[in-house]
Design brief:
The complex is a heterodimer of chains A (72) and B (262). With 72 residues, chain A is an all-alpha fold. Helix content of chain A is 58%, strand content 0%. Chain A has one domain: Transducin (heterotrimeric G protein), gamma chain (G Protein Gi Gamma 2). The radius of gyration of chain B is 22 Å and the shape is globular. The longest helix of chain B has 32 residues. Chains A and B meet through helix 1 and helix 2 of A and helix 1 and strand 16 of B.
């Protein structure tokens, strides 16, 4: 409509972007080496609880193939 | 009038240049901390052995592409939704269909099981997220109990219950995410910031706080504070749409999958 409203919208948007960026710039950050080390130690700690790593014992697997009953 | 126009132009330009310099500063900060790559740190870790997978069950019944699925907390039931407009609840042990509902739209892109196992949520091209209570009454018409909870102005791409049956988080093609109260259908919080369709979302593991991550067609992954609606951090390193995002179980990281093949 009027160029004034569209430019006030642009300003509002630009202000929000600047505020957002200011906030992001002030976040505390840690080094990748520290973050990687944290992730790896978490993995190792919880590896025992991971069925994808440990496998699922057949006795506990609810989806195991059912054997047919043999009538003697 | 003319001087007002000039003043606005100046402010806009100065804001834009401040934005650019802040972006540059952010990149600098990130680069300073990028001292090593994860795979370098992990070099001495033993590689995982061969992973053997075996198909245990095949659930047949959908008429077209299955777009979404979710496990029930009982580790037995599954809800799935399809392009054909149908949402089915399965007993994965027996492969029986326990419930089926036909949505008023095709492309049901999102479905989720409530934590209690007593309801499911789904939506797609109808631009809504609807909740259906699950009953065991065979005579009950599921569609009759439908409750429309979320209203978006474009397709629903993802939905997820939070820790309870009472709140649902949704992502939409309208570029927003939203948190809704199931009982009243009220919008509790909306999340604006994506520049294009939001395709996926994932809630942080409950012990680690009230955040969730979303990914969109604007190539950005954004982490949000659920209570304030603020974007906490945005990640713009993909070269195309982000189709899927998942939090790492520790809550300290998340992974993303994109159309750029990474």
């Amino acid at each position: 409509m009027s160029s004034k409203t569209s430019s006030t919208n642009n300003i509002a948007q630009a202000r929000r972007t600047v505020q957002q960026l200011r906030m992001e710039a002030s976040i505390e950050r840690i080094k990748v080496s520290k973050a990687s080390a944290d992730l790896m130690s978490y993995c190792e700690e919880h590896a025992r609880n991971d069925p994808l790593l440990m496998g699922i014992p057949t006795s506990e697997n609810p989806f195991k193939d059912k054997k047919t009953c043999i009538i003697l | 009038m003319a001087t007002d126009g000039l003043h606005e132009n100046e402010t806009l330009a100065s804001l834009k240049s401040e934005a650019e310099s802040l972006k540059g500063k952010l990149e600098e900060e990130r680069a300073k901390l990028h001292d090593v790559e994860l795979h370098q740190v992990a070099e001495r870790v033993e590689a995982l052995g061969q992973f053997v997978m075996k198909t245990r069950r095949t659930l047949k019944g959908h008429g077209n592409k299955v777009l979404c699925m979710d496990w029930c907390k009982d580790k037995r039931r599954i809800v799935s939704s399809s392009q054909d407009g149908k949402v089915i609840v399965w007993d994965s042990f027996t492969t029986n269909k326990e419930h089926a509902v036909t949505m008023p739209c095709t492309w049901v892109m999102a479905c989720a099981y409530a934590p209690s196992g007593c309801a499911i949520a789904c939506g797609g091209l109808d631009n809504k997220c609807s909740v259906y209570p699950l009953t065991f009454d065979k005579n009950e018409n599921m569609a009759a109990k439908k409750k429309s909870v979320a209203m978006h102005t474009n397709y629903l791409s993802a939905c997820s219950f939070t820790n309870s049956d009472m709140q649902i988080l949704t992502a939409s093609g309208d570029g927003t995410c939203a948190l809704w109260d199931v009982e009243s259908g009220q919008l509790l919080q909306s999340f604006h910031g994506h520049g294009a369709d939001v395709l996926c979302l994932d809630l942080a593991p409950s012990e680690t706080g009230n955040t969730f991550v979303s990914g969109g067609c604007d190539k950005k992954a954004m982490v949000w504070d659920m209570r304030s609606g603020q974007c906490v951090q945005a990640f713009e390193t993909h070269e195309s749409d982000i189709n899927s995002v998942r939090y790492y179980p520790s809550g300290d990281a998340f992974a993303s999958g994109s159309d750029d093949a990474t």
